[in-house]
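Exercise 3.2. Students should predict the tertiary structure of the chain below and write it as C-alpha cells, then compare their answer with the key that follows.

Predict this chain's 3D structure.
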Amino acid sequence: MQMLWLIFYSVPSLLRMVYVEKNMSIDDGAEFVYNKLQRSYNKLSDKGKEIILPHYQASKTLLLKK
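Answer key:
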C-alpha cells in the first residue's frame, strides 16, 4: 500500500529532475512525468488502481493541461 502513495507523492521530485537536471521544456517535462506515472499506474493491481485513481486523474489533469 505504501508503494501506491509513493508513486504519486514523488511528482515534485520528478518535476525537479526534468526541469532542473534534464533542462526539459515545460511541455516535454510534464509529458515525461505523466508517462512515468502512467507506466507505474499500469503496473498496479486492479485494487491498487481503484485506490489511486483519484490521484492519477488529478495528475493527468494538471500535467496534460493544454
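Discussion points: The CA atoms of residues 10 and 27 lie 19 Å apart. Residues 2-63 form one domain.
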